[in-house]
Amino acid sequence: MRRLNMKTISLFLIMILVIGTLLAIFSNKEEQPVEQASQESEEKGEQTQDKQQAQPVLSLKADQVRRMTLQNGKKMIELVPDSPYSEEEVRTNLSGWYIHQPYQNVYSVKYNPLVDMLYGIEELAWEEIIGEEANLEKYGLKKPDMKLTFESEEGEETILIGDQAGDDKRYAKVSDSEQIGTIADRALLPYELQAFDLVEKFVKIIAIDVLAQLQIHVGDEEFLIKIDHPIEQEDQDSPLFFINDQAVEEDIFRNLYKDIAGLSVDDTVNDATYHNPEATMIYTIFNQEQKKKKEVKVELVSYDKQNFAVFLNGKADFLLKKSDFENMLKKIKQV
């Protein structure tokens, strides 16, 4: 009887352990799908949010852009990778782009701001999509603060930028869509620069390897800077440099030319009137292949006591400080 009782108790204990184990297994299986579903739901939610935040405003890419038009104030800025100048005249242009408006003449665009604008297209993404709205005035989009147009060979896309939306965002829409959303302020920074911030400010910069000579006339004084290139003189291996027919060592000349080429404008001008210039700078550029020469004339007309108006092709867009020009002349005289 005692043996029977012991066997019964052992079997009973084993059954309890088996049942407990089975209950634990079933309990884990029930909890696991719930936890997994919750985790997957959170991941999908984050992916959806990231996808919405990363949704680009424009369909075109940086390497497709052939023209940019920016209206972030009263004047329109037009940027194009084409110019009316010869390859020799613009060899120093690193960006390969030119500003056609709002100025009368065409000027080179700085490299860094241009790159920021082109590759900033990828940063123009919807932070939030509000939906289709007919009342543009409510978001400041009827008369937008900013209008950005990017043109490619296939067509153009225009973004309208309206009022502040809070949290460092602005209301925006693509011109041919009714959908309104928000764009981060930081993504718009490259397009908020003014024209004077974009333009290369050199009075005229010509690469030494295509410069034949530079004549500078100031009153009764004349400075003739001449470079004899090997292509013009078959019996020499390197260029020879002269100032008023006196030979100058190459390293000295190159350091001086940095000051000449670095002469830069200081401000814009809209009301300059042409009259007899106080100084002229005539650059003679040569084309090695065509064996042709071209002259480029810069005329410095007195604007006021402190400034010259810089005339190119009979038009003036910028002012040059007279003191900067005089300092350049002093350095030429010292050499």
Q: Decide which structural class fits the backbone.
A: alpha+beta
Query: What is the CA–CA distance across the termini?
Result: 127 Å
Q: In which order are the strands of the major sheet placed? A: 4-3-2-1-6-7-8-9-5
Mean pLDDT, to the nearest integer, reads 86
- Total strands: the figure is 18
Radius of gyration: 35 Å
* Beta-strand share of residues: 25-35%
Q: Provide the helix percentage.
A: 25-40%
Sheet having the most strands: 9 strands, antiparallel
The backbone outline, from C-alpha atoms, is elongated
Query: Could you give the order of the helices and strands?
Result: HEEEEHEEEEEHHEEEEHEEEEEH
Number of domains: 2
Stretches with pLDDT under 50, minimum 5 residues:
29-53
Helix run count: 6
Protein name: DUF4340 domain-containing protein
Organism: Lederbergia ruris
Domain DUF4340: 112-271
Pfam families: DUF4340 (PF14238)
Structural commentary:
The protein is an alpha+beta fold and 335 residues long. The chain has 2 domains: 62-198, no CATH class; 208-334, no CATH class. It has 6 helices and 18 strands. Strand 7 (156-164) and strand 8 (169-174) form a beta hairpin. It is elongated and about 105 Å long. Residues 29-53 have low confidence and may be disordered. InterPro entries: DUF4340 (IPR025641). Residues 112-271 form the DUF4340 domain. Residues 34-56 are annotated as: Disordered. This is DUF4340 domain-containing protein.
Which tags fit this structure?
335 residues; alpha+beta; 9-stranded antiparallel beta sheet; 6 helices; 28% helix; 32% strand
Chart the SSEs and their pairings.
Blueprint lengths: L1 H52 L13 E5 L4 E5 L17 E4 L5 E2 L2 H9 L8 E5 L13 E6 L4 E9 L4 E6 L4 E6 H4 L6 H4 L12 E8 L2 E8 L11 E4 L2 E3 L1 H12 L5 E2 L10 E9 L4 E11 L4 E6 L2 E7 H13 L1
Antiparallel strand pairs: 1-2, 1-6, 2-3, 3-4, 5-9, 6-7, 7-8, 8-9, 10-11, 10-15, 11-12, 12-13, 14-18, 15-16, 16-17, 17-18
